[in-house]
Amino acid sequence: MYTVFSTFDVPPEKADEVIGIYQNRSRIVDTAPGFLDFLLLQNEKRPGEITVQLFFESKSDYLNWVRSGDFKKIHELEKKYPDQELASIIPSVSQHKVVAR
């Protein structure tokens, strides 16, 4: 299994707005080959720190996802988000191979 964390900081007063966006996400990734799960995490001590966690069966499945047209389409839509402060945030991404469960 392979997991990817995308962590970004938003102004704390906009955290609920961002959470709402992800609660109503397109779910396109859910149909990607090898996709297993999606989690949205909010740091309890820093509520403006939001993390998207994706799980895939393998690294190659994840890489195929990020190279897909659907991935590009989703991220192009993000750039058009009306709140340009949120649209311009670049996440910190880390990738991990799951070695035990």
From TrEMBL:
Residue stretches spanning the membrane: none
Keyword Oxidoreductase: yes
InterPro entries per the UniProt record, alphabetical: ABM_dom, Dimeric_a/b-barrel, Heme-degrading_MO
Residue intervals of the ABM domain: 2-90
GO function terms (MF aspect): monooxygenase activity
Alphabetic keyword roster: Monooxygenase, Oxidoreductase
Superkingdom per UniProt: Bacteria
Stated name of the protein: Antibiotic biosynthesis monooxygenase
Organism: Alkalicoccus saliphilus
